[in-house]
Amino acid sequence: MSTESLEDLRREIDRIDDALHDLVMQRAQVVERIGVLKGGVQVLRPGREAEILRRLVSRHQGRFPRAVLVRLWREMMGALVALQSPFPVAVFMPERGAGYLELARDQYGAYAATTPYRSVGQVVRAVADGVAAVGIVPVPDREGAENWWLGLTSDNPDTPRIVARLPFAGPGPGRGDGAEGLAIGRLPHDATGYDRSWIAVETDPDISRARLKQFLGAAGLEPSLFAATHRADDAWMHLIEILGWVAPDDRRMGRLVEKSQPIRRSVVLGGYAVPFTAEDLAD
Fold it and tell me: Are residues 114 and 95 in the same domain?
């Protein structure tokens, strides 16, 4: 028969809470030292964050829900990123309750400094001009009225790139309206070993998707999604999601553009660590 009392267990919880709190404060101190080494420059590392969360989920045991574990760490990560330097977030919000604000807060914390914008183009410009550290935009689709992703095809070094897909751990109960989005920032996307990349390919008009897929395969690129196409009289621009990680200087991108092919230009628009599935977070 157990001899421990309710008061004993409560004291044990208090001791554990103090230990957890001490570790959180220690983590904050380490992050502040990292900020000093960076010279106050904000460097978001979405790939590194994804790797941390995957490691924690893979080692997790017990009845504490994995989804709540990820929520705790995401909230802490958002707060600690903001410790290094101001971290304003631009959010596409055409109307109240559109869901993208919830995506931003789920990813970067409930107290993230968010600013809503009525158009996606305004979000892209805010990130490009350095007004926002990161922007939340909708996932492009073939029916989308605003081909905002065309603004990411520039070779300018300040051009935003896709760095994450949201929600990373699925929507919380009652949050948003099932919206999905992408995070963009002025930084390269990281390779994590479980990634998707986005590229834009400019071609002659009227090229079929089947033929374009052949050219991609010949270059060693496997498309997972033909997301959108911008059609003009003299050229078409295709937005394509690729399995795996594709660096901006990837040789496969160079192989896409040859004189004998109808492909005129190709550019990497970024990428993201693949989000958790419901099965990944199942208790």
Answer: yes
